[in-house]
């Protein structure tokens, strides 16, 4: 168990996802390759109604939807789909995607709910989401303690425990089980969001 935690700590220090400029292609279809990078498309300036997604995932920069709980407009600003596999002993992780969202027309109830932490909730404010899968290949349950920090190349260190707006991603994975589509979402300082090209976990 301690070996898995140590491997996870080493992974968190060394692992980074590169977010590169627009115009490239992503490596979505290359699940077996993990070069540590993914191409990112930036949001287009025009926010037309054909970019509205009523139900489903936001997959292209500029697509937007309404948050069902707060009626906030949520726009996908950036996305990287690295499909990076990380071996943590009996626990295998697949980093599926990293997304940056802009949340605007923020209600007072949303501001109040997520007011804790170091990053204030303003109108608009930004969030970063990391989505991943975990597989326990061993015969014993494994604890995954989640992520401690997300660090951007714009020198912002996000404390996942303090600035998350949901769960911190810590849980137990049962023997020979796969946990799919887990994610963490944290508040992101709006300074230099457009300049973010790299995120380190």
Automatic annotation (TrEMBL):
Keywords tagged on the record: Signal
Stretches for region Disordered: 26-47
Superkingdom as given in the UniProt entry: Bacteria
Signal peptide: 1-21
Protein name: DUF4352 domain-containing protein
Gene source species: Listeria monocytogenes
């Amino acid at each position: 168990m301690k070996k898995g935690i140590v491997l996870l700590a080493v992974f968190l220090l060394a692992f980074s996802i590169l977010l590169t400029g627009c115009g490239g292609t992503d490596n979505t279809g290359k699940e077996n390759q993990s070069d540590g990078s993914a191409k990112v498309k930036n949001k287009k300036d025009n926010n037309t109604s054909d970019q509205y997604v009523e139900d489903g995932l936001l997959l292209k920069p500029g697509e937007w939807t309404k948050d069902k709980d707060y009626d906030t407009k949520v726009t996908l600003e950036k996305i990287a789909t690295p499909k990076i596999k990380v071996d943590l002993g009996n626990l295998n992780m697949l980093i599926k995607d990293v997304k940056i969202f802009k949340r605007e027309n923020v209600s007072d109830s949303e501001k109040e709910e997520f007011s804790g932490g170091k990053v204030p909730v303003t109108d608009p404010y930004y969030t970063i989401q990391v989505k991943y899968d975990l597989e326990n290949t061993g015969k014993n349950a494994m604890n995954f303690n989640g992520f401690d920090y997300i660090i951007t190349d714009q020198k912002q260190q996000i404390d996942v425990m303090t600035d998350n707006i949901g769960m911190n991603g810590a849980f137990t994975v049962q023997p020979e089980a796969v946990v799919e589509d887990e994610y963490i979402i944290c508040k992101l300082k709006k300074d230099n969001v457009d300049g973010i090209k790299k995120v380190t976990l």
